[in-house]
Amino acid sequence: MHIRDIFSIHRTTFSFEFFPPKTDQGFEDLFGTIARLQELKPSFVSVTYGAGGSTRERTHDLIVRIQRETNLTAVSHLTCVCHSEAELAAILDRYAESGIENILALGGDPPRNLAGYDRSRDAFRHAVDLVRFIRSRSRLPDPRGFGIGVAGFPEGHPGTPNRLLEMDYLKAKVDAGADYICTQLFFDNRDFYDFRERCELAGIKVPILAGIMPITTRAGMIRMAELALGARFPARLLRAVERCADDAAVARVGIHWATEQCRDLLDNGVRGIHFYTLNRSDATRQIYDYLGVKDSLALERS
Prior knowledge:
By secondary structure, the protein is α/β, with parallel strands linked by helices.
């Protein structure tokens, strides 16, 4: 289903993000997890994308399999890094031929195994250019072309310290054809509300989805800080984690914190909640249970 149709049907969307495993067994295990999540009836699921060749192919394979073997709407991430214009065109054509209608367009980072990679070799340096390219090129039967999402950063983009320029760049991505914004993870809803208000002031009117990632282990929290550069952990959350005797307790604290974030977001009219699952469904299922949401349409009926 095209992302615009999803937003027209769902007043509030719920979506899950996964990344393609490196092994065949991991791939099969993850697909089983995704298939079982069908019972929650998410609005859509997304799959991350690595610039390296093998990861790139696994993203495509997983997206196509979701499309063919489940009733879920799949959104594929796509980055500018390590791509010529011809390569990007070929990827988009493959998705169109497979019935994939939605892309999350990102600037991306070079793979860790390509230290010192020269970005001048890439066709595009910034997500706004990729959005324009996707919007200009579509082999889909739908005249609207691909549905396109872009990233937003409630705590600030790590590469753009100037918060005024940051909003200008985000507005440019929307003006280039983005249909919605999905935010980076955050732990203090005040950051999201301020971001949403600044988007409104900038004239950005597309849906904004809140990115939520529940903490489940201490090591995972450290990893989050590394992946989401500049991520702020509120002192109350840090104190709660510090009191935990083991990771089982950390998971309970993290799930409770994320649940309360979601509850507050829903009470304040969030357009959608996007769960960064780290390929695990238990935490997301528990949050659904605690919120009392049986599926992504339940909120519309409440």
